[in-house]
Amino acid sequence: MTDTIIELETEKTVSGIKIPKRPKIKQGAFQIYTGEGKGKSTASLGLMLRALGSGMHVYYLRMLKPRWKTGELKLCPENFHPNLTFKNVPHYWALCVSKTIPEDVETMKEKLKPEMEDLHRQVKSGRYDMIIADEINYCIYRGLLSLEKAVEIVDDRPRNVELVFTGRHAHQKLIERADLVTEMKKIKHHFDQGIRARIGIEF
């Protein structure tokens, strides 16, 4: 093993960004980030950046998060990187309120159906090396998405595609299919001390 850092061959330069040649991925994996602790979406964003820096093509689907105020949403859609498709579900489902309102739950189910169909198409398309579905586990847990459809998407994943699901309460059927499962366990959290979510850290 060498300690030498190899600079990836540049395929093109876009807006001053050197884009490495797209690597040939022989073996992708299905990853799950779950648990009650902080860091699930953060981990997936880190994977996204690493993949882009290596020349991979990435599709990032963001569910249940607010349409405003989050740092990654402000940054990514603005032509952040030519190899990135960053999509935010265009309906805000307030976790603290809407889950108790049947009409909101039904509305969100309808909004998410086409997103799941599109996610399925993207997974099978071969256009992307890495596909991330942020908060999909929690959507399934809350009954907003079909577990059967999620299993179908996983089972249809091409061998060379890296598929990442995040969100608490990952279903056992998905865990059984995963190649990597990381559970974020809360030991301490500053929220318990009354510290509110901070810009740039929690959102």
Mind explaining what this structure looks like?
- The strands form two sheets. This protein has a six-stranded parallel β-sheet, sandwiched between helices. A two-stranded antiparallel sheet has the order 1-2.
- The chain is 32% helix and 19% strand.
- By secondary structure, it is of the alpha/beta class.
- It has six helices and eight strands; from the N terminus they run βββαβαβαβααβαβ.
- The chain has a single domain (27-184), classed as 3-Layer(aba) Sandwich (Rossmann fold).
Features:
Rossmann fold, two-stranded antiparallel sheet, 8 strands, alpha/beta, six-stranded parallel beta sheet, 203 residues, disordered N terminus
Write a brief caption for the model.
The protein is of the alpha/beta class and 203 residues long.
The overall pLDDT, averaged over residues, is 87
Number of strands: 8
Number of domains: 1
Helix proportion range? 25-40%
Give the number of helices: 6
Which structural class do you get from the secondary structure elements? Answer: alpha/beta
Point out poorly predicted stretches. Answer: 1-5
Corresponding CATH superfamily: P-loop containing nucleotide triphosphate hydrolases
Task: Name the beta content range.
Answer: 15-25%
Distance between the termini: 39 Å
CATH topology call: Rossmann fold
What would you report as the Rg, rounded to the nearest angstrom?
18 Å
Name of the CATH class:
Alpha Beta
Major β-sheet annotation:
6 strands, parallel
Could you state the order of secondary-structure elements as H and E? EEEHEHEHEHHEHE
Apparent shape:
globular
Query: Order of strands across the biggest sheet?
Result: 5-4-6-7-3-8
**What is the CATH architecture descriptor?**
3-Layer(aba) Sandwich
